[in-house]
Write a structure and sequence with these properties.
alpha+beta, nine-stranded mixed beta sheet, 31% helix, motor protein, P-loop_NTPase, Kinesin-like protein, cytoplasm
């Protein structure tokens, strides 16, 4: 019940080959003690975070240094935990969360390249084995595309090309915002949950444009549901319902679609509509974060209902959850405007508190 600040970490991706050939300058420099300095014409600013991972940081360093292992342990203890990555399109959000997720026809990714998700799955299953049979695990995978919520895991896959059914978003006093008829799939092994992640990712909508050859056109939420029971065997005279107190925790991974300027991406037609919906939902998220960053006594109404994304993240942002935010940026001078926007966004989020 104590107030807990959102933990915000920053990851700076390396310059791409295209940026290097083009002669882009590096304008973001990592300093000590979790700070970065932005140095460019008319811009000279320093930002501080819980941790900063520079261009040479490994996937393992991000997992250990971000506090992800502790988040897994809190989820097992019954807390609602969320990690989400945000930033400009092409800034490395999906790579940070999933690594170079292998397709079924290609060799699997090297262990060192696996992202926060796969490493968290391994940590969770390791903890599960130490608990014996006391943990029951299941997963659900949702996509928010053009303000429609749909499931990306199907009990019985339909014919190829069949669009997923939109799921209604409800609210109740006890559960808050929730998705009705959301399918959860049980799993017991690392291979099973990795297959579920691959299945959901392959069905996710992506497109190529000028800034990113594999741009996510939707927000994706993978939630691990963890149910545990007390392992102490009660006396035979204790009534059965009281004999099995249980805890239910969740670990939710949110891969946000990247913010983008339609002019720079060259998007048109359907891609332009998608980009406008993405930017609108990210703007609603930024507005909620700005209001939540104010002291509790000065807060106004928080407009979670402005988008499907903010409704689903309401508990994570200002409610009873434990949240880790991974801000991803490019160090390129060409991306300076979007990089500064992400840094200001992340700085405001550091002031947000929840009561887990």
């Amino acid at each position: 019940g104590r107030e807990t600040r959102l933990r915000v970490v920053l990851r700076v991706r390396p310059l791409t080959c295209t940026e290097t050939r083009r002669g882009d300058r590096r304008v973001v420099h990592s300093l000590s003690d979790g700070t970065v300095h932005v140095s460019a014409a008319r811009h000279d600013a320093t930002f501080g975070f819980s941790a900063v991972f520079d261009t040479g940081a490994s996937q393992e360093a991000v997992f250990e240094g971000s506090g992800m292992r502790q988040l897994v342990e809190l989820a097992i203890d019954g807390f609602s935990c969320t990690v989400f990555a945000f930033g400009q399109t092409g800034s490395g959000k999906t790579y940070t969360l999933m690594g170079p997720l292998a397709q079924s026809e290609t060799p699997p990714a090297a262990p060192g390249l696996l992202g926060l998700m796969q490493r968290s799955f391994a940590c969770l299953l390791e903890q599960s084995r130490s608990h014996g049979s006391d943990l029951a695990l299941s997963a659900s995978y949702l996509e928010i595309y053009n303000e429609q919520v749909s499931a990306r895991l199907a009990a019985q896959p339909g014919p190829a090309g069949t669009p997923p059914c939109a799921l209604p978003l409800r609210w109740s006093k006890t559960r808050g915002f929730y998705v009705e008829n959301q399918l959860s799939v049980d799993f017991e092994s690392l291979e099973a949950i990795t297959d579920l992640l691959l299945q959901g990712s392959q069905r996710r909508r992506t497109s190529a444009h000028a800034l990113n050859r594999h741009s996510s056109r939707s927000h994706a939420l993978l939630t691990i549901h963890i149910r545990s029971r007390a392992s102490i065997t009660p006396p035979t005279w204790v009534p059965q319902p009281s004999a099995c107190p249980s805890k239910q925790g969740t670990l939710c991974f949110v891969d946000l679609a990247g913010s983008e300027r339609v002019k720079e991406t060259g998007s048109s037609g359907e891609l332009s509509v998608e980009a406008n919906n993405i930017n609108r939902s990210l703007l609603a998220l930024g507005h909620c974060i700005s209001l939540l960053a104010k002291p509790r006594g000065k807060r106004m109404h928080i407009p979670y209902r402005d988008s499907k994304l903010t409704r689903l993240l309401a508990r994570s942002l200002g409610g009873s959850g434990v949240t880790l935010m991974v801000a991803c940026i490019s160090p390129s001078s060409r991306c300076l405007s979007e990089t500064l926007s992400t840094l200001h966004y992340a700085s405001r989020a550091r002031r947000v508190t929840t009561r887990p």
